[in-house]
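Dear U.,

Please find below the material for section 3 of the report. The protein was modelled together with adenosine-5'-triphosphate; I have listed the sequence and SMILES used, followed by the predicted complex structure.
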Amino acid sequence: MIRFANVSKAYLGGKPALQGLTFHLPVGSMTYLTGHSGAGKSTLLKLIMGMERANGGQIWFNGHDITRLSPYEIPFLRRQIGMVHQDYRLLPERSVVDNVALPLIITGFHPKDAEKYALAALDRVGLRDRANYLPVHLSGGEQQRVDIARAVVHKPQLLLADEPTGNLDDKLSMDIFNLFEEFNKLGMTVLIATHNLGLIQQKPKPCLVLEQGHLR
Ligand SMILES: Nc1ncnc2c1ncn2[C@@H]1O[C@H](COP(=O)(O)OP(=O)(O)OP(=O)(O)O)[C@@H](O)[C@H]1O
């Protein structure tokens, strides 16, 4: 599904954030991405999302080299990807169901259909009964599950997560990792950037380890 071939990235005026990365994420795999702060985890995810451009190498997404996409093609790439954030990024003045439906509305779904799919996604993460709440009335763990529902509402092939349990205790973190596992079992390819080594040990999966921009 994803293949990096000798990929490098340096931000303007900075030292290289990633150097010579070569790896493969097969379709249907679930993989962790770890490494110390500043090792390049977020940068790697941003390259896959087309939010940053590589300076060298190729990144293949289902056989297409996404380092060569034009700005007009990036939205089509992103429709195949769901992204979960550490800080949830929910719109505070919109209801939970509206937050989850928003990506569908933006891509042109009829509001009624968008709501139907958003409710189905909320059902998957166990929050159907919170659909009409405002995010502020949910716990941190619940807000993270809403973020996950929003990331999967368009049924992406690839689910990315950047420190999804950074703000949660161990029990809630395990619940979130279990949810990722469920989506993986449904066929989504999953890549999770995390510092949570305790959870990784409890749920062993293939692991990419970054050290100062290099894969160990
Ligand atoms: N927009 C940017 N402009 C310049 N340098 C950046 C930018 N974003 C990241 N960097 C640098 O690139 C390197 C990798 O950063 P990145 O955020 O990818 O690491 P990370 O492993 O995700 O860190 P953390 O675990 O703290 O989130 C760091 O040296 C960082 O300072």
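For the text of the report, you could mention the following: Residues 170-185 form the longest helix (16 residues).

Regards,
Y.
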